[in-house]
Amino acid sequence: MEGKQITNSVLLILSILLSVIPIPSLATALRYQTLVFNPRSQEHETPGQHNPSTEADPNSLTLDPLATPSRRDSLRLEALSNHVAAAATATQSAKSISAPVSSGALFGSMEYFVHLGVGTPAKQLYLALDTGSNLVWLQCLPCGACFNQSDPIFDPRKSTSFSPLSCDSPRCKQLVNTDNDLLNCSYSRNCLYTGSYSDDSYTTGNLSTETLTFGKETVDDVAIGCGHFNEGTMKRFAGILGLGRGSLSFPSQTGNKKFSYCLASWFNDNSDKSSITFGYSAVSQNANFTADLLQNPDSRLNSLYYVGLKGISVGGELVQGINPSDFKMDSNGRGGVIVDSGTTYTYLNKKAYRPLRDAFKNAMNLSVTNYTPFDTCYSLSHPENTSVPIVGLHFDAFDMDLPGNNYMINMDDNGTYCFGFAEQEDEYSIIGNMLLQGFRVSYDLANNLIGFTLPSDA
Question: Where does the UniProt annotation place the signal sequence (predicted)?
Fold first, then answer.
C-alpha cells in the first residue's frame, strides 16, 4: 500500500459513539522492541531505485520492475473502487493444495508470485497473487500484442485440457459481475473477456477452462482468461491469480472456499518460508479471526476483503485521537478497512493517520526526515541496536502486535528507515502486504471470516 492523485470522491463515515478511556501519556511506560537488522541484497531492488515514470495497473498487480511501489500503490488505490463482484459458485472438489510463493525480488517488484503449472502437459508460469482481482488470467499465443515475461508464453494449442467457453456458458455470463468492463462474443461464438486499467494497460482474450497444477495436485476445469492482446507496463510474469470474492476468482472455483498465505520478508527473499494453501487445511487452528468479513454494499467493491479495525496502539497505549468511527464503513460503502495482498504499504485515512504518526514520532524522539510516500523516516546508523515502540492493531475480536521490521521499512543502503504507514486522501484505509509479512492470513469465504496467525505459530 505519490505520483498520481487518488481520484475517488468520498462521502461521510458512519459515526459510532463509544466511551473513551483516558490514555496515559505516551512519554511513560511505553513498550518497545529491537529491530532485527537484515542486510539488503545488492541484487534486490530497493524502493528508492524505482522509476516513477512507468507503472502497471495496480488493480491487476502488473508492475514495471522500475516503477516505485508508492506510485503502483497510488494507482491501485484508485482502481480498487472499480471492482465489481459476483455471487460465488463452487465448481471444484474440496481437496487441499499448496504451493510455494516467491517474493517480488525475483522480478524487481514488491509483489509476491506463485509458480504453477498451466495446461496438459503442464507449463510452469509465474502468476502474481492478488486478493483484489476476481479473475485468473495469463498471456497466450498467438499474440496480437504481448509484454515480455520470464517463461515462454503459454500456447493453448499444445494443451489437451484447454477448452474455450461459449458465449452462452454460465461462466461467460458471470463476466458482467467481475472487474471486466466489456462482455462480447467472437465470430465463432467463443466468450471474450477484457480488463482495462487506470494506466491504460489492458488484457483481452478468450475465457476458457484449463487445468492448473500446484506441485503434484491438479485442479481441472478452472475458468481462466487466455489473453491474446495485452499491453501496458506489465513485465516478466505471465498473469494474475485472482483471489478476490468474485465468482470467477480461484478460491471461489474451489470446493470449500478456504485459502491462506504466509509471506516472508521481501528483503530476505525467503521463498522457502512463503506459501499459499487452498482447501480444508488452509485455515490454521491457531488463527485469530477478526470476526466476520464485512461486505461493502457497493456492488463494485463487495469482492474486496473488509475487516473491523477499531484502534491502533503505540508502545502499548491506544493512540489518542483515533476513534473507532474513523475505520467504519457508512451505509453507502464509503470508508472501511481493506486487507489487500497487492498493495505494498499500509495507507490510512488522515483522521487515523495523523494521530498515529504523531504518537510514533513522540515515542521515537529522534530527528525525522521524509522519503516518498512516507513523511516519518529516520537515519539509523546502527539499526540492529535501535528500539522502536511496539505498534498494535486492535480488531473487533482480538489484538495483534506487529514485529518492528514490518513497520520500520529499510528504504535504501544508507540506513534510512521509514515508519511504514502513509496517509491517503480517501476515507477508506488499506492494510498492505508488508505490514503482514510473517503472518499467515486465512480466508474462510464459506463462513465469511478472515484471520491472522502470529508469526510464531504460522
Answer: 1-27
pLDDT tens for residues 70-112? 555 665 555 554 332 332 333 344 568 999 998 877 677 778 8
At 282, list the grid cell.
488452509
363: pLDDT strictly greater than 80: yes
Please name the residues in contact with 48: beta carbons below 8 A apart, sequence gap of 6 or more. 371, 411, 412, 416
Q: Is-contact 336 422, C-beta < 8 A?
A: no
Distance, CA of 358 to CA of 241 (rounded, Å): 38
Identified catalytic residue from 64, 130, 199, 375: 130
| Residue 326 among the catalytic residues | no
Among residues 422, 406, 95, 81, the alpha carbon closest in space to that of 281 is found at: 95
Instruction: Write out the three cell numbers for 104.
Output: 517480488
- Per-residue DSSP letters for 245-282? SSTTSTGGGSSS-EEEEE---TTTT-GGG-EEEESGGG
C-alpha 164/C-alpha 145 separation (Å) is 20
Distances from the Cα of 231 to the Cαs of 65, 109, 204, 234, 343, in angstroms?
15, 18, 9, 7, 21
Catalytic status, residue 396: no
At residue 251 the predicted structure's pLDDT band, cuts being 50, 70 and 90, is: very high
Which helix (H) or strand (E) element contains residue 352? helix 350-364
Of 57, 64, 269, 340, the active-site residue reads 340
Can you give the pTM of this predicted structure? 0.79
Nearest to 238 by CA among 144, 106, 125, 102: 125
